[in-house]
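Per your request, structure below.
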């Protein structure tokens, strides 16, 4: 899709585009606090993207059904990692 950058796979978020995602979430929530924000697509189910998406504070992720079990596990692991980093 136009304006989408991917790395190594159509399922992995590109590090270079992460700032765009962060800016969009911050700007949206600055105008409308508490706004529900999510990502739809296979990137939402990618374990390598889970930590970034968790830190981004998304309200939800959406992916194809066969990726849901892995996405749930990766998201739980990412949440634990983020909490551990915040305690340091």
């Amino acid at each position: 899709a136009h304006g989408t950058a991917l790395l190594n796979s159509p399922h992995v978020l590109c590090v270079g585009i992460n700032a765009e995602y962060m800016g969009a979430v911050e700007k949206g929530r600055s105008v409308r606090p508490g706004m529900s924000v999510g990502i739809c697509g296979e990137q939402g189910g990618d374990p390598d993207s889970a930590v970034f998406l968790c830190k981004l504070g998304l309200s939800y992720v959406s992916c194809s059904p066969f990726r849901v079990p892995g996405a749930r596990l990766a998201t739980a692991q990412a949440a634990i990692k983020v909490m551990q980093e915040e305690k340091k």
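The beta strands are 38-40, 60-62.

Regards,
D.
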